[in-house]
Amino acid sequence: MEAGEVRYEVQGPQAHxxxxxxxxxxxxxxxxxxGLLAALDRADADPAxxxxxxxxxxxxxxxxxxxxxxxxxxxxxxATHEGRRSYxxxxxxxxxxxxxxVARVNGHALAGGLGLVLACxxxxxxxxxxxxxxxxxxxxxxxxxxxxxxxHLGRKRALELVLTGDRLPARDALALGLLNxxxxxxxxxxxxxxxxxxLAGKSQAVLALGxxxxxxxxxxxxxxxxxxxxxxxxxxxxxxxxAEGVTAFLEKRPPQWKDR
Length: 260
What we know:
The chain is α/β, with parallel strands linked by helices.
């Protein structure tokens, strides 16, 4: 395990990324954003890593969002603006990584912290966690993470969250589709581990192809999306693991993935 504002630890096929600023409610400092970007690159390049798990240190807060104490930088307005843009690059990088990602939501996920939850493919939250966008209460608006919120919710519910700043209990967030599971604290690790293990057992080549197609098609018109996805299916059928998967199914045995 490596220490810092972001801890990186490999456990079998899983890379665990932990925001380690519990005294600051795991807020998104420039160091956290840079650390997460570096950790994503590291995990993506490691062939032994098959799934990524993102969490926060401690038991109360996953991530409270941007560090309000670091809003103004010493390098001038444009440099500070570029630093803010790095959060947008981080959200995009979660979708670009070739491996599936799971958010282990160990506590409250607010503002930019909720953006990290939405950027992950799947999310498991502990009971008692709140999710929301309270920026409006300090005279700010959740500008960048709002792009992901719009893709997860309908217009009315998304606007209600960003305009009121209300916090959703985990069970309500689950009902809205912002989470995949909500479990008692004692079951959080086992539930995340089971989900990550299931993902790690799939063909990594097909997962990478499918995730890329999913995110690319998301903003297309229906005819354009279907045209793209038909070509991606043709690529998928040509993959070694597609042939192995079909053969294993017919032979009634577990597939032996080659990840290609």
